[in-house]
TrEMBL record:
NCBIfam families: moaC, PRK09364.1. The keyword Translocase does not apply. Keywords: Molybdenum cofactor biosynthesis. InterPro entries: MoaC, MoaC_sf, MoCo_biosynth_MoaA/MoaC, Mopterin_CF_biosynth-C_dom. Pathway: Cofactor biosynthesis; molybdopterin biosynthesis. This is Cyclic pyranopterin phosphate synthase. Catalyzes the conversion of (8S)-3',8-cyclo-7,8-dihydroguanosine 5'-triphosphate to cyclic pyranopterin monophosphate (cPMP). Residues 14-149 form the Molybdopterin cofactor biosynthesis C (MoaC) domain. PANTHER family: MOLYBDENUM COFACTOR BIOSYNTHESIS PROTEIN 1, MOLYBDOPTERIN COFACTOR SYNTHESIS PROTEIN A.
Length: 156
């Protein structure tokens, strides 16, 4: 198996995308945060209000900021100018479902930007709610779909 971020002698390297064509790239990532009933009882309308402020609104801002700075966090990611980053957070039962949709016109995909955006939004929810309960679990973060590049992907 050839890993794209390793040279032939096994050293880490950024992938050379210089010869790739520019195309529309999109990615949707999802994180699920199990908050539990102790926290969800504070849900008012579509957000949880705490002394730190509105939880979901703050997490959307944090996730967007993180998606834009992915190359500062993941060593071999390319610097990308994002055309769009949309984060939505919905309450389903005692879970917060975070969807991060990212797009750009470029030579490389935006999967990592979507995953980082969803992850940091989840971590922000944890940070803002830990005063209410530490029984919070970030259950999963996964790529739901991507378009552009060599092949598209959609999780069933």
């Amino acid at each position: 198996m050839n890993l794209s971020h390793l040279t032939s002698d096994g050293n880490p390297a950024m992938v050379d995308v210089g010869a790739k064509a520019i195309s529309r790239r999109t990615a949707l990532a999802r994180s699920v945060v199990a908050l539990g009933p102790d926290i969800m009882q504070h849900l008012t309308g579509a957000d949880i209000q705490t002394r730190k402020g509105p939880v979901f609104q703050t997490a959307i801002i944090a996730g967007t900021m993180a998606a834009k700075r992915t190359d500062d966090l993941i060593p071999l990611c390319h610097s990308l100018g994002l055309d769009n980053c949309q984060i939505t957070i919905t309450a389903q039962g005692s879970d917060a479902i975070i969807d991060c949709l990212v797009s750009t016109e470029g030579k490389t995909g935006v999967e990592m930007e979507a995953l980082v955006g969803a992850s940091v939004a989840a971590l922000t929810i944890y940070d803002m709610c830990k005063a209410l309960s530490h029984d919070i679990v970030i259950r999963e973060t996964k790529l739901m779909e991507k378009t552009g590049g060599k092949r598209d992907f959609k999780r069933e």
